[in-house]
Amino acid sequence: APPVRDFTGTAPADVLREVYGYDAFRGDQAAIIDQVTGGGDAVVLMPTGGGKSVCYQVPALVRPGTGLVVSPLIALMHDQVDALVANGVRAAYLNSTQDAAERRRVEQAYVSGGLDLLYVAPERLNTDSARRLLGQGRLSVIAIDEAHCVSQWGHDFRPDYLGLGDLAERFPDVPRIALTATATPATHREISERLQLPTARHFVSSFDRPNIQYRIEAKSDPRRQLTAFIRSQPEGAAGIVYALSRKSVEQTAEYLSAQGIDALPYHAGLPAETRAANQSRFLREDGVVMVATIAFGMGIDKPDVRFVAHIDLPKSVEGYYQETGRAGRDGQPAVAWMAYGLGDVVQQRRMIDQSPGDRTYKMRLGQHLDAMLALCETVGCRRQNLLGYFGEASTPCGNCDTCIEAPDTWDGLVPAQKLLSTIVRLQRERNQAFGAGHLIDILRGASTDRIRQQGHDALSTYGLGADLSDQDWRSVIRQLLARGILVARGEYGTLALGESATGVLRGETPVPLRRDTIGRTSAPRVRRA
Ligand code: ADP
Ligand code: ZN
Fold first, then answer.
1. Where is the signal peptide (predicted)?
2. Left (φ > 0), alpha (ψ -120 to 50) or beta: where does 326 sit?
C-alpha cells in the first residue's frame, strides 16, 4: 500500500486528483462536498454510478476526525475499504464478519484518531457499545448510504435504519449526509423526517440514463424471445439476465448454453467457488451472459454491461430501475429488455397474498406491482413513465420501444364490458369467482368439462368473445389489470372488478388497448444520436 497521508485541510479538488486520480468533479459532487465540508447537512439523490462515494469520502478526508459511513451491504463495504486502503487512506469497517480481536483493533484505531473513514453496518450501530465507542473518538462527518432503507413505504425497508435518526441528537455538531439512488418524492420526504435532516440541502440529480434503451414486450415463448434478443446484440456484448427463482436461473442458463450462448448461472444457492468463478469470468471476459437472481449486481463494478434482460416481472419500479441501471455505466449505448405476461401478474399477486405481513403491507406491495404494470402497459414513452414515477418531468425520449415504434392501439371497450359483465354475473347470480383461464373459456364459448359441469354455457355472455383468440384475451386482461379495471385475488388469481370498472361498464371510460407486441423481438435498434 502507498504511504498513508493526512488530507486534513487539503482542497477537495486536490484530494480528488491524489486519492482517486480524477481531474474534475461530476454533476453535483463539488457542491455537495462544499456543503458537507462546510459543516452543513445534505440529502443526495443520485442514480447508481453517479459517484456518490466521493461525496462523503472527500469531506471525511478534508475535515479533522473520522468519517462514519453507515452501509447495509457488507460486500460493498469490504470493496470500498480495500480500495481506500490501496490508495493510502486510513479506512476500516466494523461488522459481523470480524472476530473480537479484529474489532478491538479497529475500535482502538478510531479512538486514537487513526482512522479517516469507519464503515459500520446499521445493526451494529444501534448497540449501546457502538454508541459509546463513537463518543470516544472524533467524528468528522456522518454518511448514511442507501438512505431509502429508512422508508417503510420503500422496497428495501430495514428497521435498523429507524434507529439512525437520533445520531442527530448525539452528535449535533457533526454534519450528516444521506445518500440514495432510489427515491420517489414520498421516500425523499421520509428520509428527511426520519433521519432528522430538516435543514439539509437537497441535491437531486436527474435519474435519466439516456444511453439505456428501454424495451418491454409481451411474453409468448420467453426462452425463444430471450435468445432472439441476445442474438440481436453486438458480438461480445456482456449482459445480465434476471430471473426470480433459483430454478429458473439454472434452467435459463442451461437453455442459453445449449443455444451456443456463453451463459453462466449465479444465485445464492450455488457453492461459493462456483459463484466466485462465474463472477470472475463475467468481469474479466467478453461476451459472458450472467443469468442471476436480483441479488447479483449489487456492488459489481462492471461498467460495460451492454444489456440487462428481465424474464420475470420485477416487483417494483424502483427495483426495475436499479437492476436496469447496471447496464451501460460507461455511458455507451445499452439495452434494458424485458418480457412479461399475465402469468407474472398472477404469480406476483399470489406471492403478495401469501406473504407474511398486515393488510397495509400487502397493499403497499400491490401498489408497487401496479406501478410496474403501468410501466409495462403504457402506450406512451417508457422513459417518461419511469422518470415520472421518480417525480421527474420529461418529454418523449426517442430511445425506447414505444417511441421508436408507436404501439398499435385498438378500442377495447366492448371486450372489456363483456369480460366485466361475465365476472359480475358469476358473482351476483352464483357467488362464484374464476381466474383468467376459465373466464376466457366462457367468453370464447369453449366446451370444457368444467364449463359443462358448472352450466356456464347457459350464461348470456357464453361465446360472446369468440372473435378474440385466447392470446388476445390474455392481453386484454393484463392491460385491464394494469389500469385497475380488474384486480386479481387469492391463490388462484381469481379476477374481480377494480375501482375503475364502473366507468367501463357504463361505457364512459374509453379503453384503448395496445396490440400485443409479440414478435417485436427484432425491433429496430435505432438509438438517439
Ligand atoms: P454510486 O455509489 O453513485 O453508484 P460510485 O461512487 O460507485 O457511484 O461511482 C461510480 C463510478 O464513477 C466509480 O467507478 C467512481 O470511481 C467513478 N467516479 C466517481 N466520481 C468521479 C469523477 N468525478 N470523475 C470520474 N469518475 C468518477
Ligand atoms: Zn421513449
1. none
2. alpha
- Pocket around ligand 1 at a 6 A CB cut-off: 22, 25-26, 29, 46, 48-54
Q: State pTM to two decimals.
A: 0.73
Give SS3 for 244: coil
In which residue are the cell numbers 428497521 written?
159
Q: How far is CA 354 from CA 294, 492, 493, in A?
A: 21, 11, 12
Give the pLDDT confidence of 298-308 residue by residue, as tens digits: 667 788 999 99
Task: Give the Å distance between the CA of 321 and the centre of ligand 1.
Answer: 18
First to last CA, the chain: 43
Nearest CA to 102 among 114, 94, 110, 91? 94
Its ipTM equals 0.97
Judged by DSSP in three states, 132 sits in helix
- Partnered with residue 241 across adjacent β-strands are 291, 309
d(CA 120, CA 107): 11
Degrees to nearest 5, angle at CA 311 with 377 and 279? 140
Cα of 214 vs centre of ligand 2, distance in Å, is: 8
